[in-house]
Design goal:
Blueprint lengths: L1 H13 L1 E3 L5 E4 H7 L5 H18 L9 E7 L5 E9 L1 H7 L1
Antiparallel strand pairs: 1-2, 2-4, 3-4
Helix pairs in contact: 3-4
């Protein structure tokens, strides 16, 4: 059981980013497969529930969940932008 926990924590830390201000964050679309979600819509619903949970448990109404747009190339070779989020460690904790 310890090996699974260490493996999971390593994967989580491996996809961590740090912005220019020193804030750590995880991209939702990279976290999604680690948590075994196959559809963005389902995972996005979980993210939104985590945000509600955060707002209900804290007096501070500010939370760190910037929306970002990522370019992807579709099957037809066209570039499109998809929604993603920069998730704080605490929001990730609430998601899990």
């Amino acid at each position: 059981m310890n090996e699974i926990k260490e493996y999971t924590e390593k994967l989580f830390e491996d996809i961590k980013y740090i912005d220019e201000e020193g804030n750590e964050y995880w991209l939702a679309r990279e976290l999604m497969p680690l948590l075994e979600y196959s559809k963005w819509e389902n995972f996005n619903n979980v993210i939104q529930k985590a945000v509600v949970s955060y707002k209900n448990s804290n007096n501070d109404d500010s939370y760190w969940l910037p929306e970002v747009r990522k370019p992807i190339i579709t099957g037809k070779g066209k570039e499109e932008f998809i929604k993603d989020y920069k998730l704080s460690r605490y929001i990730c904790y609430l998601i899990v």
